[in-house]
UniProtKB/TrEMBL annotation:
Protein name as catalogued: Phage capsid-like C-terminal domain-containing protein
Compartments where found: Virion
Pfam family, one: Phage_capsid
Source species, domain of life: Bacteria
Phage capsid-like C-terminal domain ranges (all copies): 45-270
Organism from which the protein derives: Enteractinococcus helveticum
Amino acid sequence: MVQTTPGAAEAWRPNQVSSFDPDDLLKTALIIQCATLAGSVEGDAPSVLVPYVSADPDAGFVAEGAKITFGGGTLSQVAISTNKVASIDAVSRELVAQKGAAERIARSMQRAVTSKADMAFLNNASAPTGLFQVAGIATAGALDTNIFAVYDAIAEIEGDGGQATHFLIHPTDWAVLSKMPEATGSNRSLVADVHNAATRTLAGVPVIVHSAVPEGTAMMLDSSEVVAAYGTLDLARSDDVYFESDAVGIRATWRLGWNIVRPARLQKLTVGEETTP
């Protein structure tokens, strides 16, 4: 009789694949926070077609009993290219058998997959293209010369019919804004005080401070214009692949993709080293 990893969580028993809902397990992933789920990915599907209304139909007043004129709305679709983020590691059999080890390993793999997905979501060169690399996204202004450029970015999005939902910024750039003084020579911040951290909102829009954002650049966006498709997060274990090392192979995979419907509803801003009111 042979026993392996006694007491291990069921999800980590030998040669078994467990699938998890990313909306539950990967809540901090940027694609889940800043995009709208528009499709699911099954297996190795390379792309997903997402329909959307590119131009709303016309509407007008109609007399009772009169014929209603056709509105003429325009339907379109956007293709979402997907890729698989994966991580694999070898862990000693003795370590996996320790109490709580499976959960700690799972969290580590989760962080690795999320980190890679976040970097791609913002900076991927192509197929799919990261948000900060998409051609045609306008720059609303420079926060190092005028904090009110945030309002300009919101106005551009709302003027195009959208709604600003998230503001993305690098940690060092958020520090720049947090240290912005009320006036020249003042030690009082416009967005924080000496006792409390700066509330992570600007102009009423939630701020996400993330290291994957390119330093020196920020973005105001409408999450409904960033459509996403992703599948389940799959965690698998094998006791065979590293047999000679008496180790266990652990693998995490997650297929995801995204695209932008209306680039005008994403607005870039620049952030310099010194910001003034």
